[in-house]
Design brief:
The complex is a heterodimer of chains A (394) and B (306).
Chain A lengths: L1 H31 L2 E2 L3 E8 L6 H18 L6 E8 L7 H11 L6 E3 L4 H13 L3 E4 L21 E3 L4 H15 L4 E6 L3 H16 L3 E6 L8 H5 L7 E4 L4 H13 L5 E4 L15 E4 L11 H10 L9 H21 L3 E2 L1 H8 L28 E5 L5 E3 L2
Parallel strand pairs in A: 2-3, 4-5, 5-6, 7-8, 7-9, 9-10, 10-11
Antiparallel strand pairs in A: 1-12, 11-13, 13-14
Helix pairs in contact in A: 2-10, 3-4, 5-6, 10-11
Chain B lengths: L1 H31 L6 H18 L9 H28 L8 H22 L15 H4 L1 E4 L2 E4 H23 L1 H11 L1 H6 L4 H24 L8 H16 L4 H22 L4 H15 L14
Antiparallel strand pairs in B: 1-2
The chains are: A alpha/beta (394), B mainly alpha (306).
């Protein structure tokens, strides 16, 4: 009996190892093999389409789809954007499954996303092994692109067209220090990579400036923050709330008022949604300005609105349009170099060669020469007005 | 002291909602010996149904007096969920009534996914906010009364009082009416009850109506304070189930007590121990009860003749 079990384990182990090796070889082979540029190229978009952050994925998908529809034909490409759902409540599991599916698809020459930092951390190795370039329009965790190279060996194929938390953290903290003159700040985190990184970045700057800080940590599935609000000191000036669910920032702001606390909520880019986070007096930061104020974008906005009736322009969509635009140009360059055939490696090599005039977020888009980040990108700070609108204040 | 009072208010609010959900689990288990894992999603549907009626009646600018507005929203959600409960029982559980116990359990999980995905398809993934804060300049939050330095907002008073009224009504119905007697008889011995002339199908349907209606009310009470999404049913369902187990699944007073105990455990853990580990504590409580007192606080021990 024991021999039979041992034999079964040995066979199983050999099968698993062989299957893994076969999988890696298949992925590598697909990366090396060319794909005809005359066929439809798919660009998967790894983003939470459902769940509490579903609004984010829906917005990103609509802009990426619009970009592919309007820009690809002019480049002689046939492209479809394929949404790959990764609900934030389910952690990294869906992203892992999706990544395996993507690298097995020979028509996927590059990808958009993952939208969240947690999913980037979970999938980067898989994409790196498959030489698949992926541009995130919203994952801002610093150490994907900054810091010692030895600590980010799995991220060479990761790019983002928005600035990271290494800019957001100090921008938010400095605004609190220099403009709001805060004395006491409560910092929340939600026990996942995005908020942990950002909370640490803000806390670091505040502490160096001598601001009194305290930390509250909530599971990502929390919906009622009343007990957390109870722990906010009555003399706290700000609660920094780096959530990916804007409705939660609104709930927290309301529960502060309910309990008679004077602190204002300061949300991060993840809470930048004026339809959900609308408590007057609160603050919110974001990597994109309000593009409706950029005259050169008027035509794009009009076209997108026509394709998405009843929807309003948010902050997560435009960088997705931009990321799609970059990938389309990189694919086009790869197709030209391959004389009608493109490989994932070729697309990857060309991503950083792309520069875009009349960038949707204003000015010209260029990559940093030191990292896979945009050059000269910055974060913007808005204050919510009495009518719920976001006013640029910093 | 202020912190204690505030946490107690939180605990009562949270516990009332958990108790209403737990009652649905316990009613169905009592009669059918079925863990209805779709119950959390019925709660979610209730919050959405309430949201629809909330919008129909004017949203943050209600077209009718506030008390009537909130009553209509709650009753509509209860009615919608009661109807849903009937449909679920008829199509997902009744065909499996004589199947091995694992079959309806799997069917329940299927219904859960069906409901959450259908709701998303119909209403989208974006959170739905009742905007109660915007009603009459936040009257539901700013009015109420003070306990020491702590403010007890009207919305919380309404939530706790309404949940209490529903629980008392349920207790009365089960213990003081003929229908309740039929439910208790069916719960005690289904076959014997049938032989005594009780229409078992009607009793079971009525049980689903009651449990689902309570979940609908809980959905509204919950969503009046925080935004609702199609995914809220999962965690709320788990907490309701935990409350039912703590109180003693199958016991109505147990479900009420279990809900409140869970609310207090969660709130005080967050307030006095750690916000980070409150779920760990709550679900450790579930494990502890499963190991040391599986019949719960007020449940009956399952005695088998061997």
């Amino acid at each position: 009996m024991k021999k039979a079990i041992a034999l079964a384990i040995a066979v199983l182990t050999t099968t698993v190892v062989a299957a893994s090796a076969q999988g890696s070889q298949t992925a590598a082979a697909k990366a090396a093999a060319g794909y005809s540029c005359s066929k439809t190229i798919s660009i998967p978009f790894i983003t939470p389409i459902t769940g509490g952050a579903g609004f984010l994925g829906a917005e990103q998908m609509s802009w990426a789809t619009y970009a592919a529809k309007t820009l690809a034909p002019a480049l002689g490409l046939k492209v479809k954007i394929v949404g790959e759902d990764t609900p934030v409540e389910q952690g990294a599991t869906p992203a892992n499954a999706v990544a395996q599916k993507i690298i097995g698809d020979s028509s996927a020459l590059a990808a958009l996303g993952p939208a969240t930092s947690g999913d980037v951390a979970a999938t980067a190795k898989v994409f790196y092994a498959a030489h698949l370039a992926h541009i995130s329009p919203s994952a801002t965790r610093t150490d994907f692109t900054q810091g010692p190279a030895s600590a980010r060996e799995e991220y060479p194929t990761f790019f983002r067209d928005v600035p990271g938390d290494y800019i957001q953290g100090p921008t938010d903290a400095n605004y609190m220090i220099k403009t709001l003159h805060v004395k006491k700040v409560v910092i929340m985190d939600f026990q996942e990579p995005y908020s942990l990184g950002l909370a640490a970045a803000v806390e670091n700057v505040l502490k160096k400036a001598g601001v009194s800080t305290s930390r509250l940590s909530a599971p990502n599935t929390t919906t009622d923050y009343s007990a957390y609000v109870t722990k906010v000191p009555s003399d706290a000036d700000i609660v920094f709330f780096p959530t990916q669910k804007p409705g939660d920032a609104q709930t927290f702001a309301q529960q502060l008022i309910e309990q008679g606390k004077k602190a204002k909520v300061f949300g991060s880019d993840g809470s930048n949604d004026s339809s959900q986070f609308k408590q007057p007096g609160s603050y919110v930061s974001n990597f994109a300005p309000d593009i409706t104020a950029i005259p050169a974008d008027a035509q794009i906005i009009a076209g997108w609105k026509k394709a998405n009736p009843g929807k309003s322009v948010g902050s997560f969509g435009p960088p997705s349009y931009g990321a799609t635009q970059i990938l389309l140009h990189a694919i086009k360059l790869a197709c030209n170099q391959g004389h009608g055939t493109a490989t994932r490696q070729a697309v990857l090599r060309n991503v950083k060669k792309v520069s875009i005039k009349n960038w949707i977020l204003g000015g010209t888009f260029k990559w940093s020469t030191k990292s896979n980040d945009p050059l000269n990108a910055k974060f913007y700070i808005f204050q919510i007005q009495s009518n719920g609108s976001y006013k640029l204040v910093g | 002291v202020d912190t204690f009072i505030q946490l107690t208010i939180d605990a009562l609010t949270l516990g009332s909602v958990y108790a209403l959900i737990a009652l649905g689990y316990t009613l169905v288990y009592g009669v059918l010996k079925l863990l209805n894992f779709a119950h959390g999603d019925v709660f979610m549907v209730g919050s959405f149904a309430g949201f629809g009626v909330f919008q129909l009646l004017g949203g943050a600018n209600p077209k009718v007096p506030l008390w009537l507005f909130l009553t209509l929203v709650t009753l509509a959600a209860m009615a919608a969920c009661a109807g849903l409960g009937v449909v679920i029982e008829r199509f997902a559980y009744r065909p499996l009534r004589d199947a091995p116990r694992i079959a309806p359990l799997i069917s329940a999980l299927g219904v859960s996914f069906f409901l959450s995905n259908s709701m998303q398809l119909l209403f989208g993934a974006a959170p739905k906010n009742y905007d109660t804060f915007d009603i009459h300049n936040a009257v539901l939050y700013t009015s109420g009364f003070d306990i020491g330095n702590v403010h007890m907002p009207l919305l919380r008073v309404i939530t706790i009082a309404a949940a209490f009224v529903l629980m008392v009504a349920l207790w009365f119905l089960v213990n003081k009416t003929r229908t309740g007697k039929a439910m208790r008889a069916t719960s005690f011995d289904r076959e014997a009850a049938a032989m005594m002339g009780i229409d078992i199908d009607k009793v079971i349907v009525f049980t689903f109506v009651l449990g689902s209606a309570l979940a609908g009310a809980a959905g509204v009470f919950f969503a009046l304070r925080v935004p609702t999404t199609v995914s809220i049913g999962f965690v709320a369902g788990l907490k309701g189930f935990t409350a039912a187990v703590i109180g003693g699944i199958g016991s109505i007073p147990g479900a009420m007590a279990g809900g409140l105990i869970l609310g207090f455990a969660e709130s005080y853990t967050q307030g006095y121990i750690s916000t980070q580990w409150s779920d760990l504590f709550v679900f450790s409580l579930l494990i502890a009860f499963m190991i040391f007192r599986p019949q719960g606080l007020l449940g009956r021990a399952d005695i088998r003749k061997v």
